[in-house]
User: Fold this.
Amino acid sequence: MRATLMYAAGDVRVVDVPEPIIEEATDAIIRVTYACVCGSDLHPYHDLGDTPEGRHMGHEAIGVVEQIGDAVATLAIGDTVIVPFAWSDGTCTYCRDGITTSCVHGGFFDAAPSATQAEKLRIPYADGTAVAIPAGTDEALMPSLLTLSDVYLTGYHAAIRGGVEAGKTVAVIGDGAVGLSAVLAAKQLGAEKIILMGRHTARTDLGREFGATDVVAERGEEGVAKVLALTGGEGAHVVLEAVGHMPAYEQAYGIVRPGGVISRVGVPQYENAAVGFMSLFGKNATLTGGPATVRAYLEAAIPQVIDGTINPGKVFDRELPLEEIAEAYRLMDSREALKVLIRP
Ligand SMILES: [Zn+2]
Assistant:
């Protein structure tokens, strides 16, 4: 089959690899019908060292079940399923707590030999991991349903961990697809004021459509001052940080209101960060966030897409066939595209 492998920074190729097979009785194999490139795929695109064997890429997918292991009970051949970016058994102590990305049998498709930017995918713990989409669902909804693999529900996770609720003032740092998803999620959860920090007008316009009440293009000290001015000098109850670089974290503690919460879903590209008096301690601020527990939110989100309550698929502004995925990486890296849908 054809699959996307990365061999070094900037070197993405579609090559022939062996088809995945059922390895465990709990596995399923799907034919991938929709995949995409994630903002986090751009991290190795920038800094992957020489990898002669190639790194399999992709962790977001919708597909049709082609084979199931003997122990798979909830899926049937022919089902169309959504696959979260992490697999999980659905039964361990962390899964029962909803922290599915810490599943004792879990893992991330990114690091797996079977990844989603390919024609087929092996899904470990298929019962715990994949969720079937109701038969007969309109094909036009598939891009929005695909965002439930990662990007929309990652924004939603940020908002949930941050405690976004009716009446709260929320600031979102980052106008990438996750940041815009966080805006949409904050709106769903009833936030009163949603300040989006981003400087790309086409993106912040979509942010306004998703529910942002204010847009702040400034960064650094100026950005902090602007958010404080918009909040009567108080800051935001909840800051959703969807970037992952140190300046975004510094911005977050600059604009969080005393007693407020910073919720991070941008994968931190730093190991050490300030927590002292001038950052978190002095404000009694809470720092939370982590890998999104997408699987825990998936069943509730599917009907919201189907009934039109949310339309997160608007983050896709381009579509390319799998064979042209290298161009998708280039378009997203150069910010010519917000998020590219891939059709294997
Ligand atoms: Zn588990």
About this structure: Residues 88-89, 91-92, 94-95, 103-106 surround zinc ion (CB under 6 Å). DSSP finds eleven helices and 18 strands in the chain. Residues 25 and 69 are 4 Å apart (CA to CA). The mean pLDDT is 97.
